[in-house]
């Protein structure tokens, strides 16, 4: 069937998760991370993901904002910045204001102009997603913000992907699911979506039972994959 619905992961896919640490490092008050902000950002993101997986398999769900704070605390300690409460608060503030990647507004506008459904499907809490979308100014080109908080478990549990059909009354083969996380795109492939992995870092493919249908270097190719 033709694609009717384009679904996007949020963090790392539409929004630049390194932006918070990069911005803080450019500010005089937080010069302590001027040299090691890339490592801080990477540790923060990696722990954020791994904590979500561990909580899912342990049936110990909490919202993604708690996971984000706990991951940051680990990353700050790992990089020697534990106890810098001003830095911690600034980084958390900036996480609510993450910028979208440059191609995002035009890409989403193209999909909407073609009459396709567009939405975010994310581990993020509803409040976090609303903050990021409003900050990026892309609310008008998204039909829904779907959060795992509706089902109380993080990706890649199938109940998360179920939210798409529930929101749009569409069949799985009508959905193009786009994620910068290879494991997310792979799991969505197994679920039955057509998938695109946005591999900005040119990483190797994850060794999982499923493989994303498409691999992109950024989001500019999404409309063509959707048949626009």
* Helical percentage: 40-55%
Q: Helical element count?
A: 9
CATH superfamily of the largest domain: HAD superfamily/HAD-like
Gross geometry: globular
Termini gap:
14 Å
CATH class of the largest domain reads Alpha Beta
Number of strands: 6
Counting helices, strands and paired strands, the structural category is alpha/beta
* pLDDT averaged residue by residue: 97
Tell me what the CATH architecture of the largest domain is.
Answer: 3-Layer(aba) Sandwich
Q: Characterize the largest beta sheet: strand count, sense, and whether it forms a barrel.
A: 6 strands, parallel
Tell me the series of helices and strands, N- to C-terminal.
EHHHHHEHEHEHEEH
Estimate the strand proportion: 5-15%
Q: Low-confidence parts lasting 5 or more residues at pLDDT below 50?
A: none
Rg computed from alpha carbons, rounded to a whole number of angstroms: 17 Å
The CATH topology of the largest domain turns out to be: Rossmann fold
Count up the domains: 2
- Biggest sheet, spatial arrangement of strands: 3-2-1-4-5-6
């Amino acid at each position: 069937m033709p694609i009717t619905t384009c679904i996007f992961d949020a963090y790392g896919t539409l929004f630049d998760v390194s932006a918070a640490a990069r911005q803080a490092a450019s500010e005089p008050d937080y010069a302590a991370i001027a040299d090691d902000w890339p490592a801080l950002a990477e540790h923060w993101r990696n722990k954020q993901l791994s904590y979500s997986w561990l909580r899912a398999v342990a049936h110990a769900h909490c919202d993604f904002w708690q996971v984000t704070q706990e991951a940051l605390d680990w990353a700050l300690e790992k990089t020697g910045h534990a106890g810098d409460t001003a830095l911690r608060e600034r980084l958390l503030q900036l996480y609510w204001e993450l910028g979208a990647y440059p191609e995002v507004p035009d890409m989403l506008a193209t999909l909407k102009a073609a009459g396709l459904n567009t939405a975010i499907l994310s581990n993020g809490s509803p409040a976090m997603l609303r903050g990021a979308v409003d900050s990026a100014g892309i609310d008008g080109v998204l039909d829904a913000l779907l959060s795992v908080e509706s089902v109380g478990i993080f990706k890649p549990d199938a109940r998360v992907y179920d939210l798409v059909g529930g929101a749009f009354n569409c069949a799985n083969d009508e959905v193009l699911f786009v994620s910068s996380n290879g494991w997310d795109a792979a799991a969505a492939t197994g679920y039955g979506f057509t998938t695109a992995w946005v591999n900005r870092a040119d990483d190797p493919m994850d060794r999982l039972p499923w493989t994303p249908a498409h691999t992109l270097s950024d989001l500019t190719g999404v409309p063509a994959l959707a048949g626009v």
